[in-house]
């Protein structure tokens, strides 16, 4: 697994907009794959639930082209 967005995290945070969304979805999919292999069933279920919720909320937020999400 190779994460592409991790190179953005050299600073304390990052601004993400709609153009980053496809890569972010890919990164989160890799995180979910990792969780299935490395975490207990309970922890994996919890993490995947949170990731899925995050993706749902970002889908709503990014309907507005001007939205910027700060992660940091």
Structure overview:
This protein has two helices and two strands; from the N terminus they run E-H-H-E. The radius of gyration is 13 Å and the shape is elongated. It is mainly α and 72 residues long. The mean pLDDT is 87. It has helices spanning 21-38, 41-61; strands at 14-16, 69-71. Strands 1-2 form a two-stranded antiparallel sheet. Helix content is 54%, strand content 8%. It has one domain. Helix 1 runs antiparallel to helix 2 (41-61).
Task: Briefly characterize the structure.
By secondary structure, the protein is mainly α. 54% of the residues lie in helices and 8% in strands.
Per-chain topology:
Elements lengths: L13 E3 L4 H18 L2 H21 L7 E3 L1
Antiparallel strand pairs: 1-2
Helix pairs in contact: 1-2
How large is the count of helical segments? 2
Poorly predicted segments: none
Largest pleated sheet: 2 strands, antiparallel
Strand content: 5-15%
What string gives the helices and strands in order? Answer: EHHE
Radius of gyration: 13 Å
What is the strand arrangement across the widest sheet?
Answer: 1-2
Mean pLDDT: 87
Globally, the shape reads elongated
Q: What's the end-to-end separation, in Å?
A: 22 Å
Instruction: Provide the domain count.
Output: 1
Classify the secondary structure makeup into a structural class: mainly alpha
Percent in helix: 40-55%
Number of strands: 2
């Amino acid at each position: 697994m190779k994460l592409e967005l991790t190179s953005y995290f050299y600073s304390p945070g990052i601004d993400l907009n709609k153009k980053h969304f496809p890569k972010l979805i890919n990164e989160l999919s890799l995180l979910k794959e990792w969780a299935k292999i490395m975490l207990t069933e309970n922890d994996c279920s919890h993490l995947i639930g949170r990731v899925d919720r995050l993706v749902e909320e970002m889908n709503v937020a990014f309907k507005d082209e001007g939205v910027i999400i700060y992660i940091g």
